[in-house]
Specification:
Helices cover about 70% and strands about 0% of the residues. The protein is elongated, with a radius of gyration of 19 Å. The chain has helices at about 10-30, 35-40, 45-60, 70-80, 80-95, 100-110, 115-120, 125-130, 135-145, 150-160. The protein is an all-alpha fold. It contains 10 helices and no strands. Pfam families: Retrotrans_gag (PF03732).
């Protein structure tokens, strides 16, 4: 495992991707929150390392404490602004297949689900929204098959395509 470092001068998209990748690596390795916190701080460099020194002091002084969850929340507040998240939410809201293949559309759809937990956590809403974004002919064919899940909707659309 060779996790990427974070310098603090990356774009919001890169910061979001970095945190997502680190969380994914830690999940796969089944690290507990204490180990995650110790390891993630070792991945911070330059401006990010300086930011964390100040942020961790503030967390202690305010009584929040330094935990994995407080790191993630503070990191998001610093490097992934609400405007970035809102833009991803809008991108999801208006996402349509267009010229993408079903696989490409499904990948994009899946990536944007992280920004709309109210949809991601509800299987029916996820499936419905995916199908609604398909091109007209695929939409009609998939709708007719009455998929029972998001995975079934994706599989059906791929098969029909």
């Amino acid at each position: 495992m060779n996790p990427p470092v974070f310098n603090g001068d990356e774009s919001s998209e890169d910061a979001d991707s970095w945190l997502h990748n680190v969380i994914h690596l830690f999940d796969r390795a089944q690290y507990d929150d204490e180990l995650r916190l110790r390891l993630v701080t070792l991945l911070l460099r330059k401006a990010a390392e300086r930011w964390w020194r100040g942020a961790s002091s503030t967390l202690v002084e305010t009584g929040v404490g330094i935990t994995w969850d407080s790191f993630c929340e503070t990191f998001r507040q610093e490097y992934i602004p609400d405007s970035y998240v809102a833009a991803r939410e809008r991108e999801f809201e208006f996402l349509e297949q267009g010229s993408m293949t079903v696989r490409e559309y499904a990948r994009k759809f899946s990536a944007l689900l992280a920004y709309v937990p109210h949809v991601a956590s509800r299987e029916r809403a996820k499936s419905t929204r995916f199908v609604e974004g398909l091109n007209e002919e695929l939409y009609q064919n998939v709708l007719t098959s009455k998929p029972k899940s998001y995975a079934e909707a994706v599989d059906t659309a791929i098969h029909i395509e």
